[in-house]
Design brief:
The chain has eight helices and twelve strands. By secondary structure, it is α+β, with helices and mostly antiparallel strands. It is elongated and about 115 Å long. The termini are far apart.
Amino acid sequence: MNTGKRPDQTPPTYGELAQRLEEKTREVDLLNKNYNDLSYRIQRIITSFPMGLIVVNKNNRIEAVNQRARSIFEYSSEELAQQPIDFIFPDTKALEISPQPIKVSARRRSGDIFASEICVNMLETQGEERYFVNVQDITERQRLEQLRHDLIAMVSHDIRGPLTAVRVVLDMVATGMYGAINGRGVNIITNAQSSVDYLISLVKNLLDAEKMETGTIEIVPAETTVGAIINKAVITADGAKDRPTVSIETDITNDVITADEDRIVQVLINLISNAIKYSPDNSVVRVVGGIEGLSAKFQVIDCGPGVPKEMQHIVFERYRQLEQHKSIKRKGFGLGLAICKSLVEKHGGKIWVESEPGKGSKFCFTIPLSP
């Protein structure tokens, strides 16, 4: 009689079955432990998440919120549970996936409407799709942005105009329009002109920084030469310098390029002025320009303290200054190099620094020969 079993197959004993059951039980216990550990870690992450986090089901009803979200909206978890999403976002009837931040109106328990920013992602959990909404209260950010815009408007209208008028009057005095002045008077006027020029440059940097922020810096390319750009920048920087023992030398060509001459001159004036500022007495700042491949390359080389390797990536960030440079009398806002970077990149070029501490710095930038 054929039973369908191979001769070598024997049914497991009760002991073997018990052992297998025990092994499976241990596996299940381990899986449960891992699941509980994972759930605990996820809960800790959600709780400690610095942004508000709201979990919303496919019916656009709230299922869970973290501590930050409760703080933002001033509700408890129980009060928000199963409420429709427009309970806290009055203009939002249904959520749409939006990994990039979008601004929406939000409502607190008190009824106050405030500005918020949300990102919406969808994940499948427990076989159902859920929205995970990251939310930030941006009320304070908007207030600071408004203050910044007000400051820029004040600088533009209430400070730049009077400074320009003062500069014109100083020029008139310097040329003797109001009578001859002695040697001491000439020195005083020269120092005053330098100080006003410095303030005007700070104002210009602030206004350009605002244009960087809003993306409204304009580039107007035209045919010019490397030599014309460098000569114009050197004349301006040399005339405005307050370090008479630091001289400027040039090594240039007259190759033709297409660029916004005024903007590239602005970049070079910034770089040359920095080089003069940080150079030791009786040293030379070299300005080099020419064609390299399909680009025009400009270099400003000084004998200053140099820039440490680990700091070279931040010198072109806004409002950043190196510790070793903070003893300089005229420090500025730390905007000059950031503006240089923005203007060079607007031309499709790149800017960088080559330096070692104690061995000076070489600030270089390239721009395409034509846009």
